[in-house]
């Protein structure tokens, strides 16, 4: 390395920066790149191989000779540095001529497409998003091979320079949702975006709410369904999660696997899931309220059992419940943070040992232990992790209110939650739609999973520009499509 052009001086401070000088009869060529980001086969085959074959050609001629699709020419030092930092090879003619050819030769390293790790399903496809944006877009385009699928790229982060892709279907997705989403992403100012979950929190309508207003998924088939329904999808390079919006509250309790099963079975599983969520939230608060204020409401059949289980417990019901809830949360966090095999063992053994020891030590009653265990199991039925975490946190205000005011306190907290949900929106769409505002035509796939013969129209609250999925009149002529 005899000399380094002035425009590359800052990059030359890094040990992985390489500057190669190729001498010609006139001015030499300078080739600069970061070896840690470059695919050596592309570098030697498509770039260096052509430079050694030519001499005394202009930079414009060399630009046309290099057989790489993604290339550009620039004299802006910031553009040159940013491109080199993203895996481009810079070719400059002479050390003082700032016009530089930038050729993409980035090395893509990452894991291969595997089965979903979080949203595993028995039925349906087995591929999941990975950390490569190009691969994730490929998984979506394979499922929606239409020219109307649009992808808008945005770069975020003053330090990370993360590539964000906003996907939607032209002529289907409402432009207001697209423009709102793009504007919020472009208005975000932050230095490092290591994962799309950071951006997900920043673009939500109310970032102070514990209720998520966007859905994150690792399933490309789920994203394809959302795009066809008129929603906007966001992907980020380096993140294996896709985020789509707008959403309503009901989407968080719908598993995409429901659509792979017969509609009766899918509806029953969906009702079980929603019932489990209600039980998970209100089971322990009702225990505190009944034991503290409303003992007369206990049936005579259960009264002797409850009295005998609590006769040696020194704590009031609220302390007893809080201790058990905190123990469950500790076991859950310990199991999640440890390696998978050890975490499963800790969760099972810890639950059995601590539960048995707590009952024998009279710290808690065996009746409450059953309620807390069922409540913890019920919270796992929520398909979306962020909503599952919301339900876990939501129990504690209900428990405190039940201790202060009994069942009246539970209804007071319910009132505050409903008021908050009524004011909540997702990209401007009401969070409780189709129940508020009431849209009876959209009830068909909210509480139960309707048969596909009823899916002739998309949800109206997405305000899709193409709301029809199939012609209802023509479908009646083909009875075999009905479930």
UniProtKB/TrEMBL annotation:
Pfam families: GerA (PF03323). GO terms for biological process: spore germination. Keywords: Membrane, Transmembrane, Transmembrane helix. It comes from the Bacteria. The keyword Membrane applies. GO terms for cellular component: membrane. The keyword Transmembrane helix applies. The chain crosses the membrane at residues 271-293, 343-361, 367-386, 398-422. Belongs to the GerABKA family. This is Spore germination protein.
């Amino acid at each position: 390395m005899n000399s380094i052009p002035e425009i590359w001086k800052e990059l030359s401070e890094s040990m992985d920066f390489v500057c190669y000088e190729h001498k010609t009869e006139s001015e030499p060529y300078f080739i600069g790149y970061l070896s840690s980001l470059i695919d050596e086969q592309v570098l030697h085959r498509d770039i260096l191989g052509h430079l050694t074959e030519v001499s005394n050609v202009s930079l414009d001629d060399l630009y046309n000779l290099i057989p790489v699709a993604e290339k550009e020419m620039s004299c802006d030092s910031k553009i040159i540095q940013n491109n080199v930092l993203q895996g481009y090879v810079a070719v400059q003619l002479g050390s003082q001529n700032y016009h530089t050819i930038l050729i993409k030769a980035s090395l893509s390293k990452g894991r291969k497409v595997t089965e979903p790790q979080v949203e595993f399903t028995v039925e349906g496809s087995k591929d999941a998003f990975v950390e490569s944006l190009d691969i994730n877009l490929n998984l979506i385009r394979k499922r929606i091979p239409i020219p109307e699928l649009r992808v808008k790229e945005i770069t975020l982060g003053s330090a990370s320079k993360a590539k964000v892709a906003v996907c939607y279907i032209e002529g289907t997705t409402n432009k207001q949702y697209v423009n709102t989403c793009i504007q919020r992403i472009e208005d975000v100012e932050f230095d490092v975006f290591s994962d799309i979950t950071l951006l997900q929190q920043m673009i939500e309508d109310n970032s102070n709410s514990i209720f998520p207003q966007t859905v994150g998924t690792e399933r490309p088939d789920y994203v394809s369904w959302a795009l066809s329904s008129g929603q906007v999808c966001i992907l980020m390079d380096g993140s294996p999660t896709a985020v789509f919006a707008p959403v309503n509250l009901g989407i968080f309790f719908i598993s995409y696997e429901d659509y792979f099963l017969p509609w009766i079975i899918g509806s029953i599983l969906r009702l079980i899931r929603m019932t489990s969520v209600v039980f998970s939230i209100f089971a322990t608060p009702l225990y505190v309220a009944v034991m503290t204020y409303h003992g007369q409401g206990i049936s005579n059949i259960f009264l002797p059992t409850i009295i005998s289980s609590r006769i040696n417990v020194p704590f009031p019901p609220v302390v007893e419940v809080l201790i058990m809830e905190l123990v469950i949360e500790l076991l859950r966090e310990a199991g999640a943070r440890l390696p998978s095999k050890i975490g499963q063992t800790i969760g099972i053994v810890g639950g059995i040992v601590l539960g048995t020891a707590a009952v024998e030590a009279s710290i808690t009653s065996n009746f409450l232990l059953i309620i807390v265990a069922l409540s913890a199991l019920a919270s796992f039925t929520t398909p979306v992790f962020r909503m599952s975490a919301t339900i876990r946190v939501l129990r504690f205000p209900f428990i405190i209110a039940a201790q202060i005011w009994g069942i009246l306190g539970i209804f007071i907290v319910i009132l505050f939650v409903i008021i908050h949900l009524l004011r909540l929106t997702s990209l401007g769409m009401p969070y409780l739609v189709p129940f508020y505002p009431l849209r009876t035509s959209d009830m068909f796939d909210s509480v139960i999973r309707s048969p596909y013969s009823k899916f002739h129209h998309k949800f109206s609250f997405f305000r899709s520009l193409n709301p029809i999925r199939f012609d209802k009149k023509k479908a009646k002529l083909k009875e075999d499509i009905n479930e």
